[in-house]
Amino acid sequence: MENIQLAKEIRTAIKQDNIERVVELIGSDVELLNMVTTFGTWLHVAATHGKFEIVKCLIDLGADINRRGGVFGGGAINVAASEGHLDIVICLLSSGAEIDVSEPERNPLFAAIRGGHVEIVRLLVENGIDTRVRYTGASMKNMNALAFAREQGQEEIANLLDSGNKEEIKDTTQHKTTEILDYITEQFGPIHHTISEIIPGSKVAVDIQIIMPTQEHDFITLVTTGMSDIAMDETEESAGFRYAELVIKLPANWSITKDDMANNDYFWPLKWLKMVAHIPHSYDGWLEAGVILPNGEPPMPFASNTALSCVLLRESEGMGSFIDSENTVINFYTLLPIYEEERMIALQKGHDYLVEKLDEFDRSNVLDIKRQNIGLIG
Known about the structure:
Layout: H1 3-15, H2 19-26, H3 30-33, H4 42-48, H5 52-61, H6 76-83, H7 86-94, H8 108-115, H9 118-126, H10 145-151, H11 155-188, E1 193-195, E2 207-211, E3 219-225, E4 243-251, H12 264-282, E5 292-294, E6 310-315, E7 321-323, E8 329-338, H13 340-349, H14 351-361
Helix pairs in contact: 1-2, 4-5, 4-6, 6-7, 6-8, 8-9, 9-11, 10-11, 13-14
């Protein structure tokens, strides 16, 4: 019998769930057992059509359970997940099938999400599939399973993934936060109190740690925590800049009472600290030293008592980078409010030039709402 005709008969026997005929046609021919057709291997064909007994039979005959094939070039588990055949996914997993997450098309979790198969998603998560892996390509950008579920409108699956993710990261984020708090205390002194937030739908919850003036530091220090719970970006270009926290230094006499926080003249530094911390988690990209963020375009003064209208991110002197117990590098950046004329200097001559000029007048980086405008000096 010619190979083309033989292949047709094997495929027909699988679709008809005729185990005896499948065994008869394939026999002990390992090469025939693992041949790859347009539809993938015979294991792919059986998995696609939900033929559980034939899947078991092919595995018993010695079929290569992880051979790639089919439209998406993945394993048989991928097509089983895509078609919603839970029993076959269980069978393949118990037989040692690899969970391939090298590409989104080969990822059985993405296949199950696309098909809306909640129980298969649950099974894959319970079996340790990496839900955090992100893909960037023609159809997606920096997208993980949770983002894909939301994009596909699979809310039940999204809730399942989000719940599991929160349980998974709860202990690690708490541990990381404790390490960061210890580092902040070591650098600036004991934390006086914390301003917390809960923003529904936000990827991170940013808290502001408030450290009152000490003998070593005659200013109030505000430092974020929570911004570094999740990487700002995971592309190759962002290596070294994925995790960050922010610092702003206020004069020792700056009022931070609850009543004064209702007054924008006092509140705007805290508002901007939180807002900047959320930017990389809400938009594509990451923050690093040299980034300048204007208060509108053209920039408007932050408050009625100052002409400062932009913020410049610069490396935090004395803090720099912190490496936690998991070898994660967390960069600390100081938010330095600047004037529009100073922003133009940075755009023309680079932010390093502006920082150097600012340091010639004051290296403390403590906010001074009436300080001299470097951009107006001849």
